[in-house]
Amino acid sequence: MVTHEKPAEEQIDVRPFVQRHPWTVALLLTLFVAAVVPAAIAYARYYRLVSRTLNRGAFSNTSNIFSAPRVLTTGEEISLDSIVTGLERAGYTQSPANPKGWFRTAKSTLEVHPGSQSYFAVDPVIVDFSKGTIASMHTPATLEKVERYQLEPELIANIADKDREKRRLVRYNEIPPVLVQAVISAEDKRFFKHLGIDPFRLAKAAYVDLKYNRKEQGASTITMQLARSFWLDKKKRFRRKFSELMFTMVLEKRLTKEQIFENYANQVYLGRNESFSVQGFGEASRAYFGKRISDLTLPEAALLAGLIQRPSYFNPKRFPERAKHRRDVVLRLMKENGYITASQLADAVKQPIRLVPPRVETSSDAPYFIALLNDELQNCLGDEQESRGALNVYSTLDPDLQRAATEAIDSAMPAVDAYVKRRKIAKDGVLPQVALIAIDPHTGEVKALIGGRDYKESQLNHALAMRQPGSVFKPFVYAAALTSGVQDGGTVYTPASTVVDEPTTIQFGNQIYQPSNFEHTFYGRVTLRRALAKSMNLATVKLAGDIGYDRVVRMARRCGLNDQIQPTPSVALGAYETTPLEIAGAYTVFANRGEYVKPTFLSRVSNEGQTLLSGSPDRHRALDPRVAFLMQDMLEEVMRSGTAAGVRSHGFKLQAAGKTGTTRDGWFAGYTPDLLCVVWVGFDDNRELDLEGAKSALPVWAEFMKRAAKIHPTARRFDPPPPGVISVNIDPWSGSLTGPGCDSRQQYFIDGTQPHTQCTPPPPPDPMMDMQPTWLPTSAGAAAQILIPSGARSQ
Prior knowledge:
The protein is α+β, with helices and mostly antiparallel strands.
């Protein structure tokens, strides 16, 4: 029998070739080393860069900005739905596994459970509602009644590498399959099959670019897009493409496909919503549809996936038809890829685009507030901010009050706009700007801030604009007068002290100063209380000269106003520039018993549960508490009978104190026991508004404070007089003790400074002369008038 043995495998002996061609082999080895070794070194370098980012956390440079916590109180008027909306904004879900916290609703009951990553270490609570109010609150375990309960702060923004972004991080298992399918259909249909680079798309892109001699055809996979967004700029060049390929290879090595998609879903840019860039699908779901990512429908998922290609061009809020066309393209791609049926496609393309109503979210975005918060954060942490990684920044912002501020401006400013249009002041259609600052006068916490009418149109923050404050500065003149007699033993001034309001010429240095009153009306001898209430310029300048301009400036600086204010006659009328934010801080001395509190935007900063910074604003005593009380009482008079008395016609009825101001702009600064608000209205180019503060800024203030009172209702009134302040009945016209035939009003004095002489009753007034003006020539030769009120005397 013949057998066939399997021949041994032949082995190739390369030694003869090497011996015959040693230089060729050496060259090949050199070329191999020259190509492979640098590539290996480069790969190792890129591997370290990727690993460093992933180990630190892909979004570790993102600071999450939270609002102040919302406080629920028993008896408060608020709906269950609005609280749920706030909890969802804060990151709560209905899943007990959520580390931030979870909630559960049942008819008229809400159950809130803070999680392990909650801002507060507090017990859960059950809130019972009845007819739109909180009927009661109690803990579920012990049934203990709760009167006040703080809710989780809402996420209002992200600051990443000093950019203004909003991002809500999501996990892969939170992303609905329909969104994953939509994204890979639109961007990378072989994502789960290739190794980061799709050779089919590369070949097609190269063919198109060569055929049409252009560099527009995209071949980037999802992994390549992620690599580009994390580590590369947007310029197309060979070196960048090489880096992109290297980063892509490392990402595919380091991460699973699900992890790559999760990072992509959190990083991808999806357009702008008001002043913020929308990063990731978690934020886009809320910004465009007002819902959680898990609740997205098929058409909504397709729309978001379609935005990736050209976010600005397909922005559904600006270009709904473009967005719908692109959405339908994605839906057809999903059908071609087998993710949806023909009937699902037909139903989806029929659906209109339904976006979240405008201003529901944007009113609480507070872009100007965030800018100032970021400045304060930089000042406090400096360069350490980036090295500390991801931060949780808890601000002082009250989202409800921020929305109220936006609504107040929208409600009140059209009347101002109409006025300037009638007077043809609004040149080229440019309307007046506005700033509003609301703070807690006792803590300095800024609760709401509007720096302009539209952040998209102008990023100039008018809360920081240097403008002449006009008469809102006058209270510091009167505070200096009341202080002078208390502190240094000089002339004693009280609210009942008198000063002459008449035409005056002042020589100061080499200059002649001739101030005048509004509408050239003068009042003769008046008390300080009345002079401030009626905002009399001449009386105020006379008073400042009597006590010394330097004392006025020292008072202003103790109250936090800037060092550019100089001791000249014009200082009394607010001629030196300051900012609305400075004025808000300065008025805390009147609202806070003489203690100045610098406005602050930061409450707490933490990193991985560790507190890095706690809000502690600068504060110091600027006024004697007794003087502060007298000033508050005089500012209340401004609201009762003075230039701000019109506030009542706007429907504002609460106890308040404040002061109007009119220069080229309109001002109003005022406060209630719990909230201080400053409003400024004017033009950017400093042209004349030609509308006093009582008719420009005051209506905005009134609208805001009315809304604030509904949001945080309180029956609290101003504190009673401090020790050392007494009340005395005086004649309000003369400032003397009341007596027979004189008017009588109870007024406050620092004990020992009250008047001791009794008033002399005036002669019966002539009915024909009652309140008739007496015309006198001014120093400039113009006619002026002195008004003698009924029952008063010219002294």
